[in-house]
């Protein structure tokens, strides 16, 4: 099937098998290797990208399902040579060690910052809880870091959220 999508603002066309994942399309056909294949089951978040501004596990999304949609990968977060504020904060706060999960963490954080409303741990559903460290941890819980850099990840996201 032929699909058309916009990846990091650039229109792209691709012939894909209906069973191909968005992750495989990005990595194998489009050469965008920022999103990582971690578990390939939607459990680790290493493959997180933004689909129309909302975070999604690209290993679970079929490429045919993103026809005519906007996809943002970690490669599309920066503005030329100017780092995205989250990227700069991750560097400043040493929010990574091996770096394997970092692209997914960054895309997930960018999507999370735009998500309104309460989370599963919000006590008062009628008030905005703000992005406290506990709220950030809850909202980022779908992104795993084998190195355990969570403290610095939460600090970096919190800085950008303020």
From TrEMBL:
<dbReference type="InterPro" id="IPR001041">
    <property type="entry name" value="2Fe-2S_ferredoxin-type"/>
</dbReference>
<dbReference type="GO" id="GO:0016903">
    <property type="term" value="F:oxidoreductase activity, acting on the aldehyde or oxo group of donors"/>
</dbReference>
<protein>
    <submittedName>
        <fullName>Xanthine dehydrogenase YagT iron-sulfur-binding subunit</fullName>
    </submittedName>
</protein>
<dbReference type="GO" id="GO:0046872">
    <property type="term" value="F:metal ion binding"/>
</dbReference>
<dbReference type="InterPro" id="IPR002888">
    <property type="entry name" value="2Fe-2S-bd"/>
</dbReference>
<dbReference type="InterPro" id="IPR006058">
    <property type="entry name" value="2Fe2S_fd_BS"/>
</dbReference>
<dbReference type="InterPro" id="IPR052914">
    <property type="entry name" value="Aldehyde_Oxdr_Iron-Sulfur"/>
</dbReference>
<dbReference type="GO" id="GO:0051537">
    <property type="term" value="F:2 iron, 2 sulfur cluster binding"/>
</dbReference>
<dbReference type="InterPro" id="IPR036010">
    <property type="entry name" value="2Fe-2S_ferredoxin-like_sf"/>
</dbReference>
<dbReference type="Pfam" id="PF01799">
    <property type="entry name" value="Fer2_2"/>
</dbReference>
<dbReference type="InterPro" id="IPR012675">
    <property type="entry name" value="Beta-grasp_dom_sf"/>
</dbReference>
<keyword id="KW-0001">2Fe-2S</keyword>
<keyword id="KW-0560">Oxidoreductase</keyword>
<keyword id="KW-0479">Metal-binding</keyword>
<comment type="pathway">
    <text>Alkaloid degradation; nicotine degradation.</text>
</comment>
<dbReference type="InterPro" id="IPR036884">
    <property type="entry name" value="2Fe-2S-bd_dom_sf"/>
</dbReference>
<keyword id="KW-0408">Iron</keyword>
<keyword id="KW-0411">Iron-sulfur</keyword>
<dbReference type="Pfam" id="PF00111">
    <property type="entry name" value="Fer2"/>
</dbReference>
<feature type="domain" description="2Fe-2S ferredoxin-type">
    <location>
        <begin position="1"/>
        <end position="77"/>
    </location>
</feature>
């Amino acid at each position: 099937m032929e699909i058309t999508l916009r990846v990091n603002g650039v229109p792209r066309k691709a012939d894909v098998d209906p069973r191909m994942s968005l992750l495989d399309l990005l990595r194998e056909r489009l050469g965008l290797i920022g999103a990582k294949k971690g578990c390939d089951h939607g459990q680790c978040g290493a493959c997180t990208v933004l689909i129309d501004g909302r975070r999604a596990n690209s290993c679970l999304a079929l490429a045919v399902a993103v026809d005519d949609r906007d996809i943002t990968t970690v490669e599309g977060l920066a503005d030329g040579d100017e780092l995205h504020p989250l990227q700069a904060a991750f560097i400043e706060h040493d929010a990574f060690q091996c770096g394997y999960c970092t692209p997914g963490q960054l895309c997930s954080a960018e999507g999370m910052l735009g998500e309104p409303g309460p989370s599963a741990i919000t006590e008062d559903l009628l008030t905005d809880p703000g992005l406290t460290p506990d709220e950030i941890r809850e909202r980022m819980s779908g992104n795993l870091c084998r190195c355990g850099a969570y403290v610095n990840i939460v600090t970096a996201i919190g800085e950008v959220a303020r």
